[in-house]
Amino acid sequence: MLIGIVGKPSTGKSTFFEALTAVPVERSPRPFTTIKPNHGVAYVEIECVDKEFNVQCNPRTGFCKNSRRFVPVELLDVAGLVPGAHEGKGLGNKFLDDLRQADLLIHIVDVSGSSNEVGEKIAMGSYDPANDIRFLENELNYWIEGILKRNWDKLKREAKLNKKNEDMIATQMAGLGFTKDVAIRVLNKLGLREKPLWEWSEEEIFSLAKTLRELGKPTIIAANKCDLSNGYDNYMKLKKEFPDYFIVPCSAEAEITLKNAAKAGFIEYVPGDATFKVLKELNPQQEKAMAIMKALMDRFGGTGAQKCLNSAVFDFLKYIAIFPGGVSKLSDKDGNVLPDVRLLPPGSTALDFAFSLHGDMGNGFIRATDVITRMTYGKDHLLKHRDVIEIHFKKP
User: Fold this and answer.
1) How far is CA 90 from the centre of its chain?
2) Host domain of residue 300
């Protein structure tokens, strides 16, 4: 899974990226600090199944602590977006191209209102962060519309050869990771699946682009800097103004502070915790910093950074985590117990899981066994979050 971190300059995108990946990046309040995209690995948290088996898991990737399993996902922090990006303003074209393969976007919004529409520092609270939500959506809509219209005359000619709308749209948008299934859902929703392309209006083309963005590039809002003056009030205003949006309050800077303190051995802290434990005597300056952190966490139930990532994958996209396992053996050839986890979209079947493990397992699928219940299922069996599944297949 690839998650894109987006937003205008100076909202804390790179800070958010570093908070979740521990990859040091250049961070600065000046616009366009990030030019080349930063790529790293972050971890979503799930409840591990090791306790069901009374064993200690040994992940091949990620890590597990007290039955809290952290599963790797890819993060991409791209250059800041400014109004007119789809026309090439700022680093717009580069920004948008970097997002082509992202499965999900996390829009970092500076809810303290301390930067204007192009990321320049201004008096705190003097800018309405709601503007950022609107303009980013518009830029993405116009970007996708531009890709659609790039070969529209060719598509109209192909439509007259009786090619299906969903096939043409899927082919045109394949570079953005949009599948034929997405194209069908969008066309059905708009009532355009059977309407000849040469009869479409400009408004219908734009509606197609907008709906493709909504379904194909789902976005949640990270209300960053919520701990600063005006931050919480603006977060609450955003929730009222955008009631259908998924908005999570967070402080990426606080997450970095806590992780650094934990790394230095001053505190015990696991990402996503609602509190921390002091392990060493702190000097007055450190005590003051930790007191600020505690007040923030008491108010928001944590820094919000890990919650934002978890919520994006499991609450917003509704993904499920499936563990490969065996009825007679939970370890792999190297002795790693419950070594892997697969993140799959909702509605995934036993066959989908088999293909996620290896093409040969999908092609040679015989049956699936639930390792916990010992029940046997066919290829169309719908999987549930935290299932442990053994795939039986015919080897090629």
Assistant:
1) 24
2) 250-316
